Amino acid sequence: MRRNNFPRRPAIRIPEHVDVATARLTTLNNGVRLYLLENHDQQVVRLSFVFGAGSSHQDRFFSATAAANLLSEGSDRFTARQIAEQLDFYGSYFDIAVDRDVVVVSFCALSKFFLPTLQTAEEILLRPAFPQDEFDSYRIKRRQRLEIERRKVDVRVREAFAAAMFGAEHPYGVSAPLSAYDELSRDEVVDFYRRHYTADNCFVVCSGDLSDEALKAIENICMQLPESGERAPLIFPASVQTPQVRLEHAGAVQSAVRVGRMLFTRNHPDYVGMQVVATVLGGYFGSRLMRNLREERGYTYGVFAAMANLDRAGYMAIATQVAAEAREDTLHQIYTEIERLRTELISEQELALVKNIMVGEMMRILDGPFGIVDVTIENVQCGTDNHAIERTVEAIRCCTPEDVQRLAEKYLRREDLVEVTVG
User: Fold this and answer.
1) In angstroms, rounded to a whole number, what is the distance separating the alpha carbons of residues 326 and 177?
2) I need a labelling partner for 416 at 20 to 30 A (CA). Which of 1, 36, 39, 252 fits?
3) pLDDT in tens, 36-91
4) 3-class DSSP assignment, residue 74
5) For 338-343, which contacts have Cβ atoms below 8 Å and span 24 or more sequence positions?
6) Is 304 helix (H, G, I), strand (E, B) or coil?
7) Angle of CA points 207, 212, 216, to nearest 5°
């Protein structure tokens, strides 16, 4: 009998420490904070401008997303098509990301084409014209898109879960009516841009193969940002939770399910521990909920659990979609798995696997000059620096089965959970 000579599977090993580049901070004369992460291993550059201009800052529904998405739709000197052609000519990548708190405007390019890319970036950031025809077209298309999206149970449950978690009038929980697109004016979008795309409301992160000439060009763009805008203080009302929401959805064959609870931001000492708890439940393909709901019962293609971090709040959420007739048992199984974590110690083997997956995902994100920009942005938003990565890895390594059970018992009591279903 022939013996297999396959190599043995390597043992799971969690790195004892992670070397993460620390961003070099320069505060420009107009107040813009510029974070630099030079990396000359690859001839690429990513530049991201972060403005406190997310949807929670808007006075009029959709003005924040419209201002961000219309930045590249024409400037004082170039049309939207010309701007797109300039970026395409150099193979540059341009992206807008809008969330509840911030807008991130990013430019990626080969280092040899970074300077001409910056010329286009200057037009987009400093001289957007918000042409009336582009605004009208955008408003019509976005209204139609939202109307179609809200026919899907996963979109409706996401909006309903936010409202149940924070309250329907809270900036993190509000959902705008379709008619708000009809009422939005170009002047309101321009006004939002003028008040929020300013030096005192911005920080910049740049990573990659930077030359002295490129750095001066970046600083030149930053210095042209208006120093400040007239913004009222952002006052958030207290969150109001609704423990259970059941919404019908005509014609739906599936039910979308969300279960979670309000917790805390990333600066809380138990945040990383709760990330471990969430990963055990539904943070990877072999997680407990995935095995239960997909492999054993065939209810769903996927289920996910994670911590969500906002500037002023943080929460844990479990999300899945199942056949309508499996909805009630799906909820029962979710609560069963949560209760198992609260009453039974996780094995050292399973916990070691979870730790390895979590640290491995961090290593994947940090591999290269682009991913580290996202990490740096999140750290700056949380008021810390990239040494937070080392502290996070250490917290993951030190997490014990007893810690997992203690945190689940403390934070995942059934009576504290919010449950929302649509379908």
Assistant:
1) 31
2) 252
3) 999 888 899 999 999 999 999 999 999 999 999 999 999 999 999 999 999 999 99
4) coil
5) 338/281, 338/408, 338/412, 338/414, 338/417, 339/414, 340/288, 341/277, 341/280, 341/281, 341/288, 341/404, 341/405, 341/408, 341/412, 342/405, 342/408, 342/409, 342/412, 342/413, 343/405, 343/409
6) strand
7) 85
